[in-house]
Amino acid sequence: RMENGAGSTKEENLLSRMALNDNKAGMEGLDRDKINRIIMEASKGSRFYGNELKKEQQVNQRIEKMMHQKAQITEQLLQKAQAQVEKMTSELEKSRDLSRVIVHVDMDAFYAAVEMRDCPELKDTPMAVGSMSMLSTSNYHARKYGVRAAMPGFIAKKLCPSLVIVPPNFDKYRAVSEEIREIFAEYDPNFQPMSLDEAYLDFTDHLEQRQSWPESSRTHRCRSRSNTPADESDKTEEGTDLSPVLFEDSPVSSEGDAAGSFEQFGTSVEEAVREMRFRIEQKTTLTASAGIAPNMMLAKVCSDKNKPNGQYRLPPTREAVMDFIQKLPVRKVCGIGKVSEKMLNALGITTCSDLSRQMALLSLLFSETSWHHFLQISLGLSSTHIPRHEERKSMSTERTFKELSKPEEQLSLCRELCDDLAEDLKKEALKGKTVTLKIKNVNFEVKTRAQTLPYAVATAEDIFAVAKDLLKTEIENESPQPLRLRLMGVRISAFVSSDGKTPMQKSIISFLQLGKRDHSRSSPITHRKPEGVSRGSLVRNHSSLSFKELMPKDLNSRLQSQVHRMKDDLSENELASHVQPHASTSGCGTPAETFTCPVCFAKVKTTDLNVFNRHIDSCLSDAAKREDEASGSESDLDPEDDHRKSTVVTQKKEKPRDLKNEASASGGELDLGRVSPQEGQQTLKNNLVSLIQVDKKPVALQQQSSLSRSPLLTCPVCQRAQDTDDLAVFNHHVDLCLNQEVLHELGGQTAFTGKPPAVKNSFSVGKCVSFTSCLISISFIDQIRDTPSSPPSKKAKSLGLCNTIDKFFR
DNA sequence: TGAGGAAGGACCC
DNA sequence: CCCCAGGGTCCTTCCAAG
Asked: Which of A135, A287, A568, A796 makes a 20 to 30 Å CA pair with A248?
């Protein structure tokens, strides 16, 4: 094979972008050449084509650059890299967890299937859902013509003149989605929907319980159209309709669809998944496919394997996994798209086995995140725990239209978009600080222009005020020429939580990966042993060492086990007790839950402890920054805060002194300040409270002093009034006090200095615990790890609190 | 040195 | 005859202030 992508003609190159992408199900054995010819024919000369050409060249340049880099790599460099890769591989290998049963479910040709179900005439003709300009999905009939999702309708029509294109009906899909999610929830209440038709489920717990289920619980009636409450209006023809035939040779899903008959399922994974799919079909008349594997990435690939209406299980053994992976084309892996594929191809990599063969090289040519990702793929590793979907990060609306060049029209369109966006924002009660304008000109060149405000906005007026400016400058920028637009969009991001102050940003927690649920994509560390004690040292880059290696043994394990105990108890007991009938952002059918932040006292709507911790994180950092803001109205002494605070306090309950009980107490709110410091294991928690206090107080105090003069400062740690009005001096004192605590902690002592716990306020402890433990550990780690290249704990720095700990270590 | 914004892209469905 | 969506997330690179 030619290893060098450069040198071929434009035509050939372009083909990789434009050509039919037939790596999906239902597209085997097509006349690719003919199809590609038609596609090219239809595209040639268009502005779109021109732009694709341009993008293609950019990719080629990237590849060239990469090849050039490759040429510079010396043998020893490669060997060094190889050593690194091997070391990392063995560590990853150690962390391999095959104990989980992850299932990825995916509805077959979802939108199209729904439409076919509801309109029998469509059943036997090639059809697609979408518009002339873009198709969302096509039925399997249409796929035989090469018609597939993400293909413009007009081209599809050329491939298949008889194609029926039906406009999407999202409300209907959403309704069906709700139905299937109800079923999902029965197998995993924490399932994660990826879209309307797709979800990841962790079957592990279900299977465990299932073993002891009586047969009756595993028996399901056929065609039980009866009266499930969620049974929507799919009455087109009640009794008669069977599942749409997606494929002529589609396996008959369930024997005996005579009404009233029953189907019984076993206790194995496969039976359970089959049962789930059966129930989906009974309920919706639509079929689903599923993949069963020990982690998410594999499950996803597996769900594609026997599509449509099939399932595939990858046995949870290393051998099976590795065998499966070897033959797998890299492109099949979620996250590797056209471009990555092409780049990898240029290096002679097409399958995952190629991937592992070339890891050393890849580690030198790609970014850390990238090659770590590659490495994991090549080992068949990925998240074994399904992350809770987090709160959204942005919201946008955009619209494509035929050329729009008049500034007035552009402005008014922009206004419309802002109106729409504001409306959507309102539904979720969100406010954001960053407004982004997106424009695409008639040549398909996309630009985004963003502006971040010092405050959050949500109304159409406010958003438009920003978007308008951005648009105007773009118009002016083009000066004499008009802006010839084909698309405009407005996005808002950098949300603040409902109290209007707290940025929701990433936190230490996620960095440390202490969450029960992993972050599949973003983080290189995605594995967690059942006991969760250590996760190896995957965070390391060249020079940094692992947490485990760096943490003093005792503290390390103490922190970890405590955090884990807390976390587990919390997520299982406390979380449940906080259920609140508020609509969840996801709408995935799981109940929304709310926590009260001990810092800002805002209600945080989430089911994920990580998310909540993140909130606290950002709250703390926000508090530190808040004083900069001109609007003096929002001080920590805000009466409203006090009000909320008291609400929290009243929620607290007396807790037994025993740590375990405390941690797992279902009531939730602990009065940390009153916990006796004598109990060894609790020192951490005491520290925690102090830390939070320390962080919080000075802010308030500083604010105070800047506004007026009230020099009487009381140390929140030792509780003694400090005879100074110099904040620097005061802070220094607090530092010292604080450091004593930490010192004791590090010294392995069980109680700190003997001073009474300084804190009077109650906090909803459990929720803070893991957070602060992390805080401690991270600052700590950063200091120990004195390699210059070690990334300092960015988050810790921003917490304002790190100073104190930092000083201690200096 | 480095948090964070801005801009551009890759990818997913 | 009609000439390629819209809603997201994450990552990388550049930049500028202190």
From this structure: A135
Q: Cβ atoms within 10 A of the Cβ of A57, count?
A: 13
d(CA A350, CA A616): 44
pTM of the model: 0.65
Say yes or no: Cβ of A560 under 7 A from any atom of strand B: no
For strand A127-130 and strand A164-166, is the pairing parallel, antiparallel, or unpaired? Answer: parallel
C-alpha angle A636/A704/A772, rounded to 5°? 45
Q: How far is CA A89 from CA A78, A84, A694, A744, in A?
A: 16, 8, 42, 38
How far apart CA A10 and CA A89 sit, in angstroms, is: 39
CA distance A602 to A597: 5
Which range, of A139-143, A686-690, A716-720, averages the lowest pLDDT? Answer: A686-690
Residue A69, CB, strand C, below 7 Å: no
For the beta carbon of residue A559, count every other beta carbon within 10 angstroms.
23
- What is the structure's pLDDT at A357? 96
Q: How confident is the model at residue A602 (pLDDT cuts 50, 70, 90)?
A: low
Give the count of beta carbons closer than 10 Å to the beta carbon of residue A442.
17
Least confident of A323-327, A386-390, A485-489, A732-736: A732-736
Summarised one tens digit per residue, pLDDT across range A304-340 is 999 999 999 999 999 999 999 999 999 999 999 999 9
Does the C-beta of A367 come within 7 A of strand C?
Answer: yes
What is residue A30's predicted lDDT score, i.e. its pLDDT? 77
Element (H, E) at A164: strand A164-166
* Nearest CA-CA partner of A432 in A494, A474, A489: A494
Q: Work out the pLDDT band at A26, boundaries 50, 70, 90.
A: confident
Q: Which nucleotide is nearest to A341 (CA to C1')?
A: B10
| Strand C close to A170 by CB, under 7 A | no
Q: Which nucleotides of C are covered by protein (CB under 7 A)?
A: 2-13
One-letter identity of residue A720? R
The whole-number Å distance from A316's CA to B12's C1' is 26
How far apart are alpha carbons A197 and A144 in whole angstroms?
Answer: 22
Give residues with Cβ within 8 angstroms of A593, minimum separation 6.
A575, A578, A579, A580, A605, A606, A607
pLDDT digits (tens, 9 = 90+) for A627-636: 333 333 333 3
Q: What is the pLDDT of residue A570?
A: 33
Q: Is the Cβ atom of A285 within 7 Å of strand C at any atom?
A: no
Residue A488's nearest nucleotide, by CA–C1', is: C6
Counts for chain A of helices (H) and strands (E), in that order: 30, 18
CA distance A637 to A716: 16
In whole angstroms, give the CA distance from residue A458 to residue A336. 36
Q: Quick one: A217 exposed, middle or buried, by C-beta within 10 A (0-12, 13-18, 19+)?
A: exposed
C1' of B5 to CA of A93 (Å)? 38
State whether the beta carbon of A617 lies below 7 angstroms from any atom of strand B. Answer: no
Give the span between the Cα atoms of A478 and A581, in whole angstroms.
51
What pLDDT digit, counting tens, does each position of A287-304 carry? 999 999 999 999 999 999
In order of start, what are the domains of chain A with their CATH numbers? 10-72 (1.10.150.810), 75-98+319-378 (1.10.150.810), 102-316 (3.30.70.270), 394-496 (3.30.1490.100), 549-626+634-809 (no CATH)
- Across the strands, what pairs with A220? A263
Q: pLDDT for A181-239, tens place per residue? A: 999 999 999 999 999 999 999 999 999 999 999 999 999 998 755 444 433 333 333 33
Residue closest to C3, CA→C1'? A46
- Give yes or no for residue A139 having a pLDDT over 80: yes
Q: Binning pLDDT at 50, 70 and 90, where does residue A370 land?
A: very high
